[in-house]
Each structure stands twice: as C-alpha cells, then as structure tokens.
Queue: 4 jobs
Job 1
Amino acid sequence: MKVRKIPMRSCVVTKEKLPKQELIRVVRTPEGNVIVDITGKANGRGAYLKKDISVIDKAEKTKVLNRFLEIEVNKQIFDELRNLIK
C-alpha cells in the first residue's frame, strides 16, 4: 500500500510547519475580498494560521495578515476565525 504524503504549511504567526488540516487558510480573492477558506482550495493569495485563539489574537494585534495578503483585513474576519475554532 502506498503511503500518502501529508501536505505541510507554515503558520504566518508562529512560523511552525504543520499539517494542512491543523491550520486555517485566509484568502485574498482576485476581486480583492478577504475570506476564510474552509475548503483550502479557494483561488487567491492565501495565508495560514494555527487553530489557536492566542495565535488569532496575535495576528490581529500585529496585523501580520495585512502584510501577507497585502490588503486591510477587517475585524469581522478575526471574529469568524475565533468562531470556527470554538
């Protein structure tokens, strides 16, 4: 039986390499909207965050998503991320 490769991604806050299932993807779509990508397959520039409330809080405080996605990320996205984790 063939062993499947587990896709690894880096959290933009902690810089940890983790399996893709342990991270949440936030995407800037080609239209310029910012969305939380639950499927992990949406088109656009993506950034991964660890599924941890403290990481989400730190990302909001340091505005790290603004730098990675090159667009202003509003508070509603961070609220949506916190609700997904709970």
Job 2
Amino acid sequence: MTASDEQRDRDLEHALRRLNARAWGMATGLLAGGILFFATNFLVLKGGPTPGAHLQLLRVFFPGYSVSFVGSLIGFVYAFVVGYATGRLIGAVYNGLVREE
C-alpha cells in the first residue's frame, strides 16, 4: 500500500465518521412535526368535552397552536423548526467531536 492509498483511506474514514447535520435536522424536524400533527389530529377525531387538555399547554410555547386541524398544521411548523434546530445542533456537536487523525 502506498502513502497516497493510506491518505485516501484516512480521508474516506474521516468522511464516513462525520454526520450530515442538515439531514439530521430534516429528520428530527419531520419526526417532531409529524408526531405533533398526528397526536393533535388523533385527539380531534377522538373528540370529547375537552380534547387534549394537556396538549393545549403547548400554546404557551407555540403561539397560535390549538387542538384543531388548523392548529395541527401550525404545530407541525413550530415542531419542525424546533426539531430541525435540535438535529442541526446534534450534528454540529457530533462533528465537532470527530477529530482528524
């Protein structure tokens, strides 16, 4: 094995250890938004005198959110943004910890 082959192998290994922070952001954003969207619509379909009394508390953090179909769309956007930021942060911290040898 030549020196250039060893360098290429080290570069490939380093590239494979790094995370794509944008992909992590999209994945966690879609997951968080999807969970809130489906949970809200499940409670809307379930009905009752006060559907989603605990989920209504999200209005404190997500202005405009309510346990309704329109509220589930608003909640999806808010949860996606929070999830995206969290995923990007996880990816950035992980990539910062991966060191070149």
Job 3
Amino acid sequence: MKASEFVLCISNEGFETSLIVGKVYRRLQDPTAEAHDLIRVVDEDTSEPDGYLYPTALFVPIELPEKAKKALKSA
C-alpha cells in the first residue's frame, strides 16, 4: 500500500463495530505492522490515540486537498 496519510475503508469484514465502509481514516506510520500486511489507523474508538491495527486489504490510500487534511486532523 502506498504510504498515504489518509486511507478509505473499502471493507469492514470482521471489524463491523470498529470500521465504517466509505469512511476516511487517518493512517499512522508503523513500518513493523506494514511488514506484516497490517495498517495502523485511528478508528471509531478515538480513546486510543495510537490507533489500532487492521489488515491492509480493508483500505485504499487516498490523497485529499489540504483543507480536507486540516479538517480531518483537527477532528
């Protein structure tokens, strides 16, 4: 997966309560996880600022305009 700051959830199979299909999530850098086909994102449980690990296949990288990035980072 391309190292994008944001990803779009394309499937929540097995993680229905944690992920919303079609939602944009902030991706956190985690080279160790990525070596195991996992991605670290901040999901619906925002109480964990370090995010959670999910299979990379559940997401696609996306590029957003700067205004959108700022809005998502402050949310």
Job 4
Amino acid sequence: MEIIITADGSDTLFVPEINEHYHSTLGAVQESDFIFIKNGLGFCTADPVRIFEVGFGTGLNALLSAVYSLKNDRRVYYTSIEKDPLPEYIIKQLNYPEFVDEDGQELFRSIHSCNWNIRQKIHLNFFLEKIDADLLGWDPEGEYDLIYFDAFCPDKQPELWTRDIFTKIEQITVRGGILVSYSVKGEVKRVLRQNGFRVNRLPGPPGKRHILRAIKI
C-alpha cells in the first residue's frame, strides 16, 4: 500500500493488488467534503443524525463529519463498517489533520484510537462506533438517517454493489433517509430504485461530472 499526494495536497492510499485508490487523485479531502458533507450531512435535516458508512477506510469521512458536528453544534451518531482496518503506522502518516482546524489533529487521533465494535464519545456532539466486519456477512441492525456508501468502485469490488447489499442498506434506512455515493453507474441506480430509493444525479466535485444522492421513499 502506497501513500499518494492528491491534487489538493491531501493524501490517499493506492492498493496495488486491485489497482485502485481510496480517494480521488484529484483531491481526497475535496472529494469527501463535497460528496459526503455538503451533499450528505449538510443536506440531511435529522437532528440528531444517525450515519452509517460503508467503508471506514482512512477515517477521512468520519473526521470531516466530526468537524462539521463540532462547528455546527449538531449531534451525530456515526457507525462505520470496515472489513480490513488499516495498520496504525499508515494512519499516522496521513496528513488529513492539516486540512481541518486546530482541533482536527486531536479528533483524528481520537477517531483512530477508539476501540472497535463499541460506541465511544469522540467529542460532545460526535459518537463513533467502528464495526470490524465484512458487510457481506453482516446482519442489518439499527436505524439510520444518512448512508455514506464509500466502498471501492463497482469494477473493483462488485460484491458490495449488488441488490442484496442494497437490500441490507434499505432495511436500516429510515423513510426519507438519504444515501450519498460517488458512483452513478446505471446498475447502482437500478438496484437502488429496486429497493425503494428515489435516485438523483447531482453535479460532482472538480474533475468528476456527477455524484449520486438517493432518498428512501
């Protein structure tokens, strides 16, 4: 696994085994902030908001969500599932805390140092539970207002973009709940509609034409 500096100066990881990056090489922080914060958390009206993330990865989405909840005095209960947690030595090299305010470094450290499989308080308004499990074998539980669907792309990880997976997601999403993702592939939109979501294609961040936001009907 190799650390790559993206176009906005923030890091991402390159995985040679599948020839894929964790984030956009056109800007990791820029992409995550645009898709998951501006068009996800910032769009969701639930308060408190319960978030479920598919693919904890580097913890970037969790960090940006924690910063948002702190700045906007908004309570967030954040649950994320990850099959292959990153080793600590890689996490320590990532430069994401440099892209948030002075509290960012402490938030990033707290997010990654907290125990897996138990909900913990990261700051006054942000509660995190990291699930060390494979979504394929995970039994749906809980109710969520907002879904961050951030698995590797359908071409690289097709097993996580199937109708069965989105059925699991539908089961834990409240009516009127929101799902955001970077993928706008036709098959992804089709299975979401089959599972009761109204799908919208939105303008994407710099370098990407479109992103996806879906609402559970």
